[in-house]
Amino acid sequence: MIPGPSDPCWQRAICSEKDLSAASLATKILVSRLRQETKSNPSKVNEKIAELRKYFEKYTFAAKDIALF
Description:
Helix content: 55-70%
Order of helices and strands: HHH
Largest sheet: none
Radius of gyration: 11 Å
Number of helices: 3
């Protein structure tokens, strides 16, 4: 099950530097990009969280990666 949009795991995923070596390649690439974009424009963090949630909704194979956040 995918956590709700207000779950703190999304903020951690986007704003932390936590190692994602155990995540799928697709998740690593997406989260890396979202982190870079958020660093350059912190006001977009909610937009990036929404993008990450949509990814997990669409690609259920990656749902196990949510636990890494």
